[in-house]
Amino acid sequence: MLKASGLRVTSPRVKVLEVFAKHQSALAHNDIEAELVDMDRITLYRTLKIFNDKGLIHIAIDASDKTKYALCQHECDEEHHRDHHPHFYCIKCQQTVCLEEVIAPPLQVPKGYRVTDVQIAMKGVCPICS
Predict the structure, then answer these.
(1) 81: burial class by Cβ within 10 Å (0-12, 13-18, 19+)?
(2) Which of 16, 38, 55, 109 could anchor a disulfide with 76, C-beta 3.0 to 4.6 Å?
(3) How much is the pLDDT for 82?
(4) How does pLDDT run across 17-69, given as a tens digit for each residue?
(5) H/E element holding 18?
């Protein structure tokens, strides 16, 4: 993934990707940091930023007050994120998951507006907590 995105393969980048691969949900900065105790905050922040810029991860907008990140499942790149799906926040377990199977409908916007991204956040109880 790193080489395909034009990034050098470094130990911190590999470790961050391993954390994402291990989880099925979106992760906040402090969730990732808790698993990577040997990595400083600045390195993690920069890694997340470059991963987002290169289309490896996307920001998962949800109903919590934290910025969360999830692996991109589509062929995203630094020009376009193609992850136009809702994010679901479970009010019980506080996990955020991408609902890949739900596709956001096209939106009609007034003349002169150009939509570059659509974020849909859903909140409720996930199947595990039901």
Answers:
(1) middle
(2) 55
(3) 61
(4) 999 999 888 999 999 999 998 999 999 999 999 999 888 998 888 878 788 99
(5) helix 11-22
Architecture of the CATH domain 3-124: Orthogonal Bundle (1.10)
Give the residue among 15, 49, 14, 50 at the shortest CA–CA distance from 34: 15
d(CA 119, CA 129): 24
Strand order in the sheet with 96-98: 96-98, 87-90, 121-124
Helix H or strand E encompassing 90: strand 87-90
Mean pLDDT of 100-107: 78
pLDDT at 83: 62
Residue 84: both structure tokens together:
């136009």
pLDDT reading at 78 higher than 70: no
User: Against a cut of 0.70, is the pTM above it?
Assistant: yes
Which of 95, 120, 96 minimizes the C-alpha distance to 107? 120
Task: Determine the Cα–Cα distance for residues 86 and 60; give it in Å rounded to an integer.
Answer: 9
**Contacts of 62 by beta carbon, 8 Å cutoff, 6+ apart:** 26, 68, 87, 88, 89, 96, 121, 123
Q: How far apart are CA 33 and CA 31, in angstroms?
A: 5
